[in-house]
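Hi, here's the filled form for the chain we discussed.

Project: internal
Contact: R.S.
Residues: 401
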Amino acid sequence: MDYSRLHSIRWWNKERIENAAVMVAGVGAVGNEVVKLLALIGIGRVFLVDLDTIEASNLTRSVLFTQADIGRKKVEVAADKIRQINPDVKTAVFPEDIIWLGLGALSRFDVIFCCFDGYLPRFHLNHHLQYLGVPWVDGGMNARRELNGQIVSYQPSAGAPCFECHRSDKVKVEYYGLDAQLHRWSCAKSEQDAAAEGFVPSTPMMASIVAALQVTEGLRYLIRNSELPPRPGTMQIIETGTPRYLIRTLKKNPTCPQHPAEPITDVYELRGVNSDQTTVRDLLDLLEQYVPGGEIQIELFYDMVADAECDACHELVEVFQPLLVFARKDNPKRYCPKCKGELSAKNYGAAINRQSPFQDRKLTEAGFRRGDILKVNTLENPFDNRFFELTGDIASLLAYR
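And the returned structure, exactly as it came back:
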């Protein structure tokens, strides 16, 4: 590819762009446009996350998808289109729920572009990136009354605002609390609800505008030039129906529960641990060699449901899923295999030790996330934490091509 026009820009940094690794979380309307722009400017590596398949309704708002792509995974089609646009760009895909992506994988990105629908994945990303310090740029749109879009830049640190700092208690309860069952809204479901309420949830015009500003904010973190410095806490609001463009500077909320998050430092890489092959017992045996001084315990960065009970027939069912995944209404494991009644989590938590009843399960079978970072301490000294990464998973997770 000929990048000469880009290289003539004063602040452009060819080396940093070519060596960058970024994640695009959500490959819908805005995500399509972000992916297109990243391919055009020659970003070195692009990791795509989305569990959805392409539907006919996506085609009017997604520049990368065509009629022939209906039924295929969004991430797989987007990766193919990136290679067609610019063979210099390497891609990898994660066609699953982002909640299953481990912290070790997230830590390897220079910047993350969040293009998901809904609040839940944003809360999830915010919570995890607070530990890692990885910058992210959030982009979204809302067409209830006008063609509106919003872009917010975040740099996790002690003094900077996070996504949760400026969310109302109502939003937290509605979208983050377990009382709402944390069901996932797909694009199709959003459109059904939108049709009933008489509005269209998104347009290709606003998707293009949001993505352009979102990628520009991401470049600030990649290039870090005095002419294009990062702007953490900056919110851009576009209202093209008015029209008007607003910039607001967000402040850290001193009562936000995400501050201060204990940063993850000095991570020991377990290169020989593969989550598909290593059992919980094997992992505990290995960790005992590194953490002396008593009986060790593993603390996950999420609650994991081991089993659940049917509300109707009281059948006890093994689950082994993160609580945020289990609690969703569209999760097949939320329902009893015997009577199809709804299940309620019975045994769940974040701590795993020698008393846990699933010692001989493989890590993935026990609800561990591939490529995750684990907090490890002892029952005798639970505040002396050490961090270990399931590094044996990383090569297959980030298999760029």
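Let me know if anything looks off before we file it.
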